[in-house]
Amino acid sequence: xxxxxxxxxxxxxxxxxxxxxxxxxxxxxxxxxxxxxxxxxxxxxxxxxxxxxxxxxxxxxxxxxxxxxxxxxxxxxxxxxxxxxxxxxxxxxxxxxxxxxxx
Length: 103
Description:
InterPro entries: DUF4333. Keywords: Signal. This protein is an alpha+beta fold. Helices cover 19% and strands 40% of the residues. The strands form two sheets. Strands 1-6-5-4 form a four-stranded antiparallel β-sheet, with helices on one face. Strands 2-3 form a two-stranded antiparallel sheet.
């Protein structure tokens, strides 16, 4: 099996239904579960390894250019970071540039 750092370090765009309106506010935020699903999809597609413990932050504003990190355990128990950058927001759809590397 290839190591995640070797394969998934390339930028990959993933569309995901991952925006949620924040209460009465006019700002939308990224759903942590939606972002985590994007990480799982990218890592699985690129490496064949399916992370089961992806954790992404709450409260990230869904706007182009926003960046945040998600964390997960990779093969052999190695901790990884998925750097997430929002590249497009269309309605409830958010596209990310996802780059992973060991933390």
